[in-house]
Specification:
The protein is α+β, with helices and mostly antiparallel strands and 174 residues long. It has one domain: 7,8-Dihydro-6-hydroxymethylpterin-pyrophosphokinase HPPK (Alpha-Beta Plaits, 2-Layer Sandwich). Helix content is 27%, strand content 25%. The chain has 4 helices and 8 strands, in the order βαβββαβββααβ. Helix 3 packs antiparallel against helix 4.
Length: 174
C-alpha cells in the first residue's frame, strides 16, 4: 500500500454453523480487499453468548489491519463480508454466522449515524477485549484514555472467555 494507512482493529465472531470456517472465510475476504492488509491476528477464544438464550458458544478473535480505506468504506466492506457468509440482522445480541465489528480506527473518535468508533460497547465486552489485548494491549481507548490491557483486566472472566486453540488458525498467518 503506497498511500497513507491507518491501523484499525476488527473483532470477528461466529456461533452458527461451522464457526471456525466462518472466521477463516472472513480473514480470507479481508485479505482480498484492496486497501486492507492484516498485520496481526489474535488466537481464537471460545466465549459464552451474551444475548438471549438459547445460543451456542461463540468463537471470537481480533485483527489489526492497515488500511487506506476511510472508516465508513471499511465498515461497508465488513458488512458485505458478513452478508456473504449468511449474516441476517434479526436483532441485537442474537446468534450469527459471522459478526465483524470495527472497534478502533487509529485514534479517531467518530459518532455518526450508523458508525461509532470506538465501538460503543468495546470496554464492556470481555469476549472482545481478551483477544484484542493480545494484539493491542498498549493501545489507548481514545475516549476513556485507558490501555486495552487495563480494560481487559477489569473485565477478565476465564470461565466465560477461554482460549479455544493455542495455535493460529488463519490461512497464511501474518
Amino acid at each position: 500500500m503506497g498511500t497513507r494507512t491507518v491501523a484499525a482493529y476488527v473483532s470477528i465472531g461466529s456461533n452458527l454453523g461451522h464457526r471456525s470456517a466462518h472466521l477463516i472465510a472472513a480473514v480470507t475476504a479481508l485479505r482480498a480487499l484492496p486497501g486492507v492488509e492484516i498485520d496481526a491476528a489474535s488466537r481464537v477464544y471460545e466465549t459464552d453468548p451474551v444475548g438471549p438464550p438459547p445460543q451456542e458458544r461463540y468463537l471470537n478473535a481480533a485483527l489489526r489491519v492497515r488500511t487506506s480505506l476511510p472508516p465508513r468504506r471499511l465498515l461497508r466492506a465488513l458488512l458485505e463480508i458478513e452478508r456473504a457468509r449468511g449474516r441476517r440482522r434479526a436483532g441485537r445480541d442474537g446468534p450469527r454466522t459471522l459478526d465483524l465489528d470495527l472497534l478502533l480506527y487509529g485514534d479517531r473518535v467518530i459518532d455518526e449515524p450508523g458508525l461509532r468508533v470506538p465501538h460503543p460497547r468495546l470496554h464492556e465486552r470481555a469476549f472482545v477485549l481478551e483477544p484484542l489485548c493480545e494484539i493491542a494491549g498498549s493501545v489507548l481507548h481514545p475516549v476513556l484514555g485507558e490501555r486495552v490491557e487495563d480494560l481487559a483486566r477489569k473485565m477478565r472472566d476465564p470461565q466465560a472467555v477461554r482460549l479455544w486453540t493455542e495455535e493460529e488458525i488463519w490461512p497464511s498467518s501474518p
